[in-house]
Amino acid sequence: MSEWIPDHEWETIVRRMPIVSVDLLVRYDGGLVFGKRTNEPAKGEWFIPGGRVSKGETRQEAVHRVAEDELGISVEIVESLGAFEHFYDTADVEGVESKHYLANGYVVDLQDGNPGTDDDQHDAVEVFQSPPESLHPHIRAYLDASETLDW
Q1: Which of 4, 20, 29 is nearest to 125 (CA)?
Q2: For this protein, what is any one GO molecular function term (predicted)?
Q3: How many CA atoms lie within 13 A of 76 on its CB side?
């Protein structure tokens, strides 16, 4: 369902539009799965898996696709945290100075597979039993909104 967007079109989208996305708080082995990002925004930070919602795809379908694409796992949705406005002072597009997401947060349970680094957005994936030292404020907002996580 997810289609490749040519670079010049992606630049226009990032420059002019918020990007609808899903972010996953993956519960696994008594903790949460984080990936060390290799691209902007939040490059070099421990962050939760996420990705854009494709046209014609429901947010729930996007949750399952992102889990498979980024981590090689299947998940069960436990809780929808709602929509969050995420503004970044960096972007993954040369010449674009910021990025805006309308991110939909979800708590999910890992059903099958082991989280790995199956994508080009992370150079490490780890399960944290408590928040990493420098927890990004966007992730803190998800944790604060959750009724099923006790972090």
Answers
A1: 29
A2: hydrolase activity
A3: 5
- Amino acid (one-letter) located at 115: P
How far from 115 is each of 14, 27, 74, 89, CA to CA, in Å? 29, 11, 10, 29
On average, the pLDDT of the chain sits at 90
For 67, residues 6+ apart whose C-beta sits below 8 A from its C-beta are 24, 26, 49, 73, 74, 75, 108
Contact residues for 135 (Cβ-Cβ < 8 A; gap 6+): 46
Q: Can you list the domains of the chain with their CATH numbers?
A: 7-145 (3.90.79.10)
What is this structure's pTM? 0.90
pLDDT tens sequence across 74-130: 999 999 999 999 999 988 888 888 999 999 999 999 999 988 765 677 788 899 999
Angstrom distance (rounded) from CA 128 to CA 132: 7
